[in-house]
Please model this.
Amino acid sequence: MAVGRRWLSRTAAAALLLIGGIAVPAGPASAVDPEPKFTFELTGTTIPVGFTSKTLHLKVTNLTDETPSVIQYDVRPDELAWRDRAWFLWGEGGGSGECDGDSAGWYCRAGAGTSTAAELLPAPGGTVDYPISISTGSIKEPFEGKVQIEVYMIWGEDGERVTETREFTVTLVDDAEADLAVVAPDVRQSVRVGADGRLESTGTLNPGETGAVRYRIVNHGRKAVSGVTVDLRLPEGVTFTRPPQECAVDDDGRSAVCTYDSLALVPVGEDTEPNDDVHSAVELYNLVTVPADIEAPVTLAGGSVQVEGLTEGISARSAPKPAVLPANAVAVPAADVDASDNQDGYAVVVAAKKDDDNGGGGGLPVTGPQAGLIAGAGLAMVAAGIVLLLARRRRSVAFVSGDDTTAS
Model:
């Protein structure tokens, strides 16, 4: 029996060494430098003193090739710094998810177990902008404080929870200028222009169909602008369907500069009449088309919208009405309190047609570090099987009787 045991021990040891030799190389890379699942940032963190409320945006980007089943973000202001000075609140209108908590700390959640829209979950390679409002009515002088934000996502019903935490500085400055901000959500829906000129959604965006790049511009500052320029860039493969006359499209067909020199935007506090011609915010759109031969589902990233205010020497508290500039007048760029939120990225999410996927979703191919781990595990299983097979064959010709330690 001893010979058989010694041989099997050596066999087992060889199997462990072989398996370890194959599996170990992937281990340290995964443990030391795991591939991130998502990233996030907070924009609009500079606020002019005297402006009592501003909407910041938490931009969460999904770096995987699968839509998460759940996302939750927790906002925790530095209690000592912000107490009795300002309050952070979740945005209203359904764009934040299902939220709970108070000014000392709160959270919002979207996905499984909630009644939120699917658009609140970032698509593969896509970004979702979650609004966070800050009320600063009691701050009368420059100030800065910290706010901690924790974000976690879950993929699948029983998937692993991945959590990231970051700290941001919010600053109030004594600057009586304009403060434009732009938000451009990902393009997910196909659209058509209705009889009244308004856009109508016709379902998910499929290859060869037309969508709309929408972007909302808001003046969060204390000074008006008389016009706005927009630098619009499309993801590769996407083209303008019908650019408006205010836009000059480059030769590549993927970038354009649009000049709205009569679009006046006043501070929010001066936008008191909903039916007049004076506005503090405006939403614009450009129709775009995705290629008919593109392989879907796919997320086309790399789109961006950047805005800049124009001014004719408007006073900080004036409320100009839109007017076309005279031929000999040229609008110049306006000063901006916080340029960090003057640009926003977006992606075009193209879905597969239902008659193309045979009724099944089908996942994207596994690439990157996960592919190496899967391949290594497969080779380890094959090697272990070979070793155990040899062990089985060796045992079938070994004969041990009683206390005899010889084998024939």
